[in-house]
Amino acid sequence: MVEVMGLGYFASWAFAFGACVGSFLNVVVSRWPRELSVVTPRSHCPKCGHVLPWWQNIPIVSYVALRARCASCKVVIPPRYVMLELLCGLLWAALVFRFGVTLETPLWFWIVSCCIAIVSLDLDHWWIPDALVLQIAAAGLLMPLARGDMDWFFALQGLIPALGLWAFTSLYGRLRGLEVMGFGDIKLYAAFGLVGGWQVLMSVIILSSMLGLVIGGGLMALGYKHQGDTSVVSEEDEEWEPPSSAMPFGPFIVLALFAVVLLPDIADPVGWLVALGFGG
User: Fold this and answer.
1) 38 — phi, psi (to 5°)?
2) Lowest mean pLDDT among 96-110, 164-178, 256-270
């Protein structure tokens, strides 16, 4: 059946459903930090309160049809909403092309959707919710059931690099008297280790560090200072304030995972190091 229809058919449906999930994620990242229900009330304009009927709430399509404005008060709808819907749809479609129509693919839909929410919340609030990290970890523990080349022991081995990184950053931070890496980032690494095993996690650690150095370092060199609402934090970090020169690192971790998973032949830092070690 898959051969007859082609992956493009299934990827098209994945894009449509992914965009719908992206629309829901917009609600989650907007309401969750304010401790509001993500179910009620219905989607509405934050300025005039206009409740969106279903035809004004179709992912991507309604944004274009309404010309990026509220149908009632004509206030401009921020482009980030349609960008998140588009991103989620494109990533779901890309996962179909990467993994095909297999049991593994729905798990990656789940993981990627959680990752998109994490990126938005970390950028806006310096917050990586444990609830989302635990969902990624749960998907990782289910991964051996969907893959024939992976067992639970292999998945648990993926925790080792994360534990090593936590030990190193904790010790270095104590010696220097500063916070090297947030614990939310460490937990996110650990969840990714359960998902892909130790080699995938090592690649993610290396690549995310490179991305943070190049992109984050470049932005800071240009004078960019990230502004985020730090009022949404866990109880143990309620007095924490980010340094003025800091940037959330979660987006770099997620971007590295996407690259390693979707472009395994290109984004393979562990392979690069092995090749350099045996070269010459």
Assistant:
1) -90, 5
2) 164-178
- Per DSSP, the residues of the chain read -HHHH-HHHHHHHHHHHHHHHHHHHHHHHHHGGGT--SSSS--B-TTT-PBPPGGG-STTHHHHHTTTB-TTT-PBPPTHHHHHHHHHHHHHHHHHHHH-SSSHHHHHHHHHHHHHHHHHHHHHHS---HHHHHHHHHHHHHHHHH-TT--HHHHHHTHHHHHHHHHHHHHHHHHHTS--S-HHHHHHHHHHHHHH-HHHHHHHHHHHHHHIIIIIHHHHHTT------TTS--GGGTT----TT---SHHHHHHHHHHHHH-TTTS-HHHHHHHHHH--
Residues 6 or more apart whose Cβ sits within 8 Å of residue 140: 111, 155, 158, 191, 192, 193, 194, 195, 196
CA angle 269, 272, 277 (to 5 degrees): 130
Give 24-83 pLDDT, tens digit per residue. 999 999 999 999 999 888 898 888 989 999 999 999 999 999 999 999 999 999 999 999
Question: Measured between alpha carbons, how far is 201 from 160 in angstroms, rounded to an integer?
Answer: 9
Give the pLDDT confidence score for residue 229 in this predicted structure.
Answer: 65
Residue 235 confidence (pLDDT): 46
pTM (2 d.p.): 0.89
Angstrom distance (rounded) from CA 77 to CA 50: 13
- The predicted structure's pLDDT at residue 237: 55
Q: Where does the pLDDT of residue 5 fall: very low under 50, low under 70, confident under 90, or very high at 90 and above?
A: low
